[in-house]
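Office hours follow-up: a student asked to see two folded examples consecutively, so here they are.
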Amino acid sequence: MSSAVLQRMRDRTRAFGNSHFVRNVITVATGIAAAQAISLIFAPFLTRLYGPEAFGALAAFTAVVNIITPLATLGYANAIVMPATEEGATAVARLSLVSAAIVAPMVLLAVTLFEGQLASWTGLASTPGLLYLIPLYLVMAALLSVADQTAIREGLFKAKAVAYVGSTLLVNIGKLASGFLAPSGLVLILFLMVVKTLNFLLLLARVPKQGAFEARRWFGADGIRHAASEQRDFLIYRMPQSIINAVSFGFPVLALSALFGASVAGQYSIATLVLGGPIMLLGQSVLEVFFPRITEVVRKHPGGAVTHIRQATLGMLLIGAVPFGIIVLWGDVIFPLVFGEEWLRAGEYSRWIALWMASVLATRPAVAAMPALRLQRELLVYEVIITFARIVSLLAAARLGGDLMAIAVFSLVNVVGYGALFLVVHRRASDIRLEQQHAG
């Protein structure tokens, strides 16, 4: 190999290592990796203490609150990154919390009036009182969402990562201690509330109390009417899309619980929880860092968006090939070995779910680019179509071949859906580049 080629490789490696984007991804990924490592270390002990039924109850409650959570800020918290000015971002933060202050009491009223029906629909008929935790969860979710998005806007990735790791460690210690004393689904659900609160408090403790992170500026009504109008795409498209997406992914838990029992739902939830680790580790890291980066690229150099999306997608594909490939081949051996013999079914599920998660990871850059490319409406249409396909395919496969076939078909439908989503984003970015070339 010639010295010139070697020098070019060294220069590219040095540039890669010095990239601000790469350093931010590594910072976020390191924090998420540490949190995932903590969860995985505790998981073999927790799965032996609580069992599939307890995890099934947690999964059902989580599915319900995930469906409702986008209502907390009406989707506006995701827009904090968008405004060009600090005051514009602060106005969006105010709008998000005003939305939560309106939505939470409405949810409480709905729970009070329709407690029995809601408990039956959500699989919480044996513990309907848990529904009253939902409004409180929404408030904490709104506060954490505003703090997280502000941290992303300000580039405070390290503080965000440390807060996430700290809250994860403390909550897992609490779960373990409670598992020896009173292992139940209720305990796991309560800790779901606690982790949001701890994450928020730890994040506030680590950030400078100035600028967009001066928390007292988040409260009030100044500028919220203009912010609501300027960022209305997030209300019109992103919030419904997020709800539909949550329904789409929460439905399997509720359906499996109704058709096959809480234990099967618990097996499925553990498989998705463990395989979601790489998604949290890299996918969320790239999503959070790539979102403001691609927004700036589209604003200043729109023709370069397609190259950024291609490179990031290829990188995610290559990175996900090894961990998910191992699970596809040997998931049914790994799961019972690590989590206990009663989790064999989760291992069988994991071989199919790994294909689905690999497609999620690969398309994180494309999803992050959609707001900047003004594809919010297309994302909503996509979610409606894919949700219908997911629900129909899972129910049909469950009737025809049982729980394993249902999860296999559900996973393959997701692979096809994410592939189609990438093509939509790639086409829009390519069209923008062509328009810019013709204009030049």
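And the second, which I mentioned at the end of office hours:
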Amino acid sequence: MAGAVNAVTSAQMALAGINSAIPVDEVIDAMRRIGADMSDTLKETARGGLATTRTALEVKNRLKM
């Protein structure tokens, strides 16, 4: 849901002619560098985030993953 809201808001801003102060390519590069520097345990991955909760581990065991 949050992704859909962000997409609609971004589209509305683009159609309204609002420009970002920082070019999108620079934003993407910065986010890639930050993601590469972060430990997997801090990301929403199989080794971090919701995947490590008791319920998620129970689901994993039921699915035999």
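Two things to take away from it. The mean pLDDT is 88. The helical segments are 2-15, 24-37, 54-62.
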